[in-house]
């Protein structure tokens, strides 16, 4: 059956901020959608999960840190159509967590000052996330 509908993916995204106000970014593996670019850690919301539950689970899986759902605050929501895939990015501040983030899936991590975020290559949807961070 012909269809022009693209898959819509709901993603929980964490802007993780440390005590020095630096932000954690991770490099997406080359084989993934938007691979090779930097991202804010996170992943798809699964059926039956709240966005906060997905965020806590993804940050545990990807970074091996423990985040309490109540330690996260909403930052912004971005809708973006990549053509092959449309995403709804539910973006949250994460300022309280325990453990030191590690690239649990082998992904490079970097702590960066907010004003240097524009020096890194991100997926197109992240333009609006970075704007929201810089105007917060
Ligand atoms: N995590 C994350 N995803 C982003 C960002 N910007 C952006 O366009 N995306 C897109 C890329 C992907 O199409 C989608 C996230 O999917 P994902 O591959 O990270 O999902 P996931 O962690 O659940 O991975 P998997 O279970 O499919 O392996 O959102 C971002 O800053 N962080
Ligand atoms: Mg992910």
TrEMBL record:
<feature type="binding site">
    <location>
        <begin position="39"/>
        <end position="42"/>
    </location>
    <ligand>
        <name>8-oxo-dGTP</name>
    </ligand>
</feature>
<feature type="domain" description="Nudix hydrolase">
    <location>
        <begin position="8"/>
        <end position="136"/>
    </location>
</feature>
<dbReference type="InterPro" id="IPR047127">
    <property type="entry name" value="MutT-like"/>
</dbReference>
<keyword id="KW-0378">Hydrolase</keyword>
<feature type="binding site">
    <location>
        <position position="126"/>
    </location>
    <ligand>
        <name>8-oxo-dGTP</name>
    </ligand>
</feature>
<dbReference type="GO" id="GO:0006260">
    <property type="term" value="P:DNA replication"/>
</dbReference>
<dbReference type="GO" id="GO:0035539">
    <property type="term" value="F:8-oxo-7,8-dihydrodeoxyguanosine triphosphate pyrophosphatase activity"/>
</dbReference>
<comment type="similarity">
    <text>Belongs to the Nudix hydrolase family.</text>
</comment>
<keyword id="KW-0234">DNA repair</keyword>
<feature type="binding site">
    <location>
        <position position="42"/>
    </location>
    <ligand>
        <name>Mg(2+)</name>
    </ligand>
</feature>
<keyword id="KW-0460">Magnesium</keyword>
<feature type="binding site">
    <location>
        <position position="33"/>
    </location>
    <ligand>
        <name>8-oxo-dGTP</name>
    </ligand>
</feature>
<dbReference type="InterPro" id="IPR003561">
    <property type="entry name" value="Mutator_MutT"/>
</dbReference>
<dbReference type="InterPro" id="IPR029119">
    <property type="entry name" value="MutY_C"/>
</dbReference>
<dbReference type="GO" id="GO:0046872">
    <property type="term" value="F:metal ion binding"/>
</dbReference>
<protein>
    <recommendedName>
        <fullName>8-oxo-dGTP diphosphatase</fullName>
        <ecNumber>3.6.1.55</ecNumber>
    </recommendedName>
</protein>
<feature type="binding site">
    <location>
        <position position="28"/>
    </location>
    <ligand>
        <name>8-oxo-dGTP</name>
    </ligand>
</feature>
<keyword id="KW-0235">DNA replication</keyword>
<dbReference type="InterPro" id="IPR020476">
    <property type="entry name" value="Nudix_hydrolase"/>
</dbReference>
<dbReference type="GO" id="GO:0006281">
    <property type="term" value="P:DNA repair"/>
</dbReference>
<dbReference type="GO" id="GO:0008413">
    <property type="term" value="F:8-oxo-7,8-dihydroguanosine triphosphate pyrophosphatase activity"/>
</dbReference>
<dbReference type="GO" id="GO:0044715">
    <property type="term" value="F:8-oxo-dGDP phosphatase activity"/>
</dbReference>
<keyword id="KW-0227">DNA damage</keyword>
<dbReference type="InterPro" id="IPR015797">
    <property type="entry name" value="NUDIX_hydrolase-like_dom_sf"/>
</dbReference>
<keyword id="KW-0515">Mutator protein</keyword>
<dbReference type="Pfam" id="PF14815">
    <property type="entry name" value="NUDIX_4"/>
</dbReference>
<dbReference type="InterPro" id="IPR000086">
    <property type="entry name" value="NUDIX_hydrolase_dom"/>
</dbReference>
<feature type="binding site">
    <location>
        <position position="62"/>
    </location>
    <ligand>
        <name>Mg(2+)</name>
    </ligand>
</feature>
<dbReference type="GO" id="GO:0044716">
    <property type="term" value="F:8-oxo-GDP phosphatase activity"/>
</dbReference>
<keyword id="KW-0479">Metal-binding</keyword>
